[in-house]
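Reader question, answered in our methods column.
A reader sent in the components of a multi-part assembly and asked whether the whole thing could be modeled at once rather than chain by chain. We filled in our standard form and ran it. Here is what they sent:
COMPLEX SIZE: two components
ENTRIES:
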Amino acid sequence: MNIAAADWQALWLTLKLAGLTTLLLFIIGVPLAWKLSQWQSRWRHGIEVLITLPLVLPPTVLGFYLLLLFSPNYAPGQWLSHIFDGPLVFSFTGLVFASVIYSLPFMVQPLLAAFNANGQRLTQAAAALGIPPWAALLKVLLPASRAAIVSACALTFAHTLGEFGVVLMIGGAIPGETQVVSIALYQHVEAMEYGAAHRLALMLMGITTVLLLLARWLGYMLAPRGSNKEGVKPVMGVLG
Amino acid sequence: MVRRLSLLLSALLVAIALPVNADNCTLRVAVAASFRPALEEVLPEFERRHACVVQISSGSSGVLYQQIAHRAPFDLFLSADRERPELLEKQGGALGNSRQTYALGLLALWHPKSESHIEQLLQTWPDKIVLADPKVAPFGSAARQALQSLDLWKKKQTQLARAHNAGQAYLMLDSGNVQLGFVAASQMQAAGRDNYWLLPQHLYKPIEQQLLIPTQSRRPKEAQSLADYLRSAEVQAQLHHLGYGVLPIQDRSRDGGSGL
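And here is the structure of the entire assembly that came back:
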């Protein structure tokens, strides 16, 4: 099984992108889901729907709007390229930016479900013991939601690995920078190099299967004993 | 009430199930996305003459080739290149010798902000230059050949950004994300823009767009009529206005091929 250097590079880039996106989304998603679960307002439903939107928009359409967002012809694009020290289009930074939006619901939804199930009860109990809210989140709620966290991270990671339409629109297939596996695969198929396409697809599936099995096992090991009656059910039976 | 409703429903179902004018001619054409606007421009006249409705499916030539090779029910395949129809023919997927060139793509260099002297920009341009992916897109390999002919391919290597195809390259330029790049002249014409540089045709191999009739075609006769119509002098003149090159004479005088 000989895989070209460019394909290894694409595999590595993809894992890097998915890993970084998962990490960033975890940092964004935990406080976001927690705030939402605590929030008793009519606006909450609106925000939750907004977070779900990346699921609804076809990825190429999402990519098209990101292209408009990145464009230096308009204010947001100028501001973004000022912040990120260069244009986001055709860059790894741009892919990370896009993936965070694209995979947002996959991180937030499982966490939100877990926090909704336990949040009130646990934070009230913590408050009764005089523990401040943020400490309650870190010391009580997160450990109690371990299974959901593993599930959310695994889903986010897997979803970003297979990202294609968005990258097709904003990436430009630059080796080592934006040429992820999904793009490399598509190029192989378009160039009628089916053997190379099969090998790369097999590699991607092999690596992903191992990683997700590891995540499952980790979730199983981490779940508090008897947690399932506590309501921290893995949100998606596929992975948790 | 219920009875009335069920009557209405059954009437509706019957109406849906009945084919519209069962005897009518419907032609299924698979066309490369880039040629779709031009095809839509010249189709109404064909439909009027032949009392035939043409259903268009457009996509990337590579994907359409895949589908047709796996017996997708198309009556005519209009590819954006020469390579895929040739391959289909080799694999026995083409009817008789129906494979022919129907259009010549022309390569253009576009700098949305400039009105003139775009050809001089290329030499000194310090920033990103977008082109379709030379590995998979005909306009990409033409752009590569042109850059090689101008002795710029190696020099500009680090500045080149590859869009997936000519359509994407156009989008990158039109949205302002890249300032200079290679597109198809037909895209410029379709968008009503004239501030582009048409690259001299000796800088790159002609971008021959070929068609063929797949073996699974249910209407090979009408498909051949459409192929002949596309290659006719009147349509070729229209295509020239739409940003396509003029087919060489010997190519146009070639007989319809399959003799249907």
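What stands out: Chain B has eleven helices and eleven strands. Chain B touches chain A through 21 residues (CB under 8 Å).
Send us your own complexes using the same form.
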